[in-house]
Predict the structure.
Amino acid sequence: MSTTTVPAKENSAATTNDAVLQLNCYIAGNPIKSENVLEVRSPYDDRLVGTVTLAGAKETDQAIEAGLKGGRNLNRYERYSVLEKARGILMNRKEEIAQLISAESGLAIREARYEMGRAHDVLMFAAIECLKDDGQIFSCDISPTGKARKIFTFREPLNLAVAITPFNHPLNQVAHKIAPAIACGTPVILKPSEKTPLTAIRLTEILYEAGLPPHMLSVVLGPTNEVAEKLVKDGRIDLVSFTGSVAVGKRIAQTAGYKKVILELGGNDPLIILEDADLDTAVTLAAEGSFRNSGQRCTAVKRILVHEKVKDAFTKKFLEKVKDYSYGDPADDDTKVGTVIDEQAAIYLEDVTKKAVEQGAKVLSGGNRTGALLEPTVITDVPRDAQMVMQESFGPLAPILSFKDIDDAIALSNSTVYGLSAGIVTNNMQHAMRFIKELKVGTVNINEVPGYRIENSPFGGIKDSGLGIKEGVIEAMKCFSFIKTFSMPW
Ligand code: NAP
């Protein structure tokens, strides 16, 4: 955490304006009382959206102890019921929570409503998984050295897990870690992004309301060394599940010590448009992939790679399409692209655009910035080594690069340190198969955006995008539990 915190008594806006939420971190259901609060401001107009009382090293320790001490254990049906009830409460408060997501993140309200649907699915799928038996049986008399025995497996919860989440999907990133943990019966300490903590705390409260035993979930925010880093290093924690930037993820990998670590990190996903592609499909996917969620998805289209023979035709159609992506006030129903997370992030995007232009790229549309609000921007002739495309640009930039043939496209796609996902636009099955086999990424989607998935399918990247350990409800449940085996004469 790096933002300035203010003593609670000086936080006059929070006490005079009813619309300002005053929320707390929680240790096993108990709100943290603190002198210091974090102010959460709208990236669009800087208004105070809410405040959160902060934890320190002492409260972080208390959260660990409360999780380890345990409490009432829920059976499978009870875990199912809590998740189902939480889903119901969330849906009853759909518009309120969507507005909170939009207010604290600057995401357009239509994106926040979409995110509500994703969180609904996560809770539903996690609830369903509670009811499925996940054991296996191995007969042992199947080799010359075999015996008349059977080996059985079942899953046990971890003692305690930590979930650290980023800002870009304030609700769904949190649901994606908490729901599978609950489905396994694993207590979890949540450390949400300091930029979007309000939605995460609301979800925590909803889970308590749905009957989650308090020891199963704590939520803490505070100085990085006293909260996040302390949790990562603590030897009593069994798992750190982290989603965020490569730099922080690699630091966690170095400091976590002897525990499970799940890392879902940055991406630099290409949309690869082949010569035979349906250009209307390509244009729609390029625009949706580049600009949805203000371009702030790990799987957003961050490079548009187009066959040189169709580049001009694609670009012409794309420039027409971009006009549909109105940007502005996130609260406005008609706005498609809200702000990025803060002004600093928007300045970074402006800066990498300028650098690409100095290297010969051309801005064809957009590029204007007011505070954290950046116009959807189309840039062509981007050099292959431009910072904009070699590193992750987390915002509504659409850099176009061309390639000459499939070998070139595969080499170009694989040329960065990232390996999250890719989208291919083609009607040629053989070409599609080559990309599926040869791209060094976790997911390849044909005639879809790179990020397409459902909430219980395996998801995650390789190379600097992650360790290849997948999330998605079903895979995440494997992470949030241990397999125990037992054998019996048979
Ligand atoms: P970030 O800066 O890495 O922060 C992520 C989380 O880590 C926040 O809660 C942050 O807390 C915490 N943190 C910061 N320093 C830490 C430390 N030393 N030890 C432990 N935790 C620490 O990432 P972000 O800017 O919020 O999110 C954007 C990034 O997430 C992008 O790179 C995006 O691609 C990636 N992402 C990846 C996926 C995926 O599934 N692969 C999905 C979504 C996003 P504070 O807020 O208090 O600093």
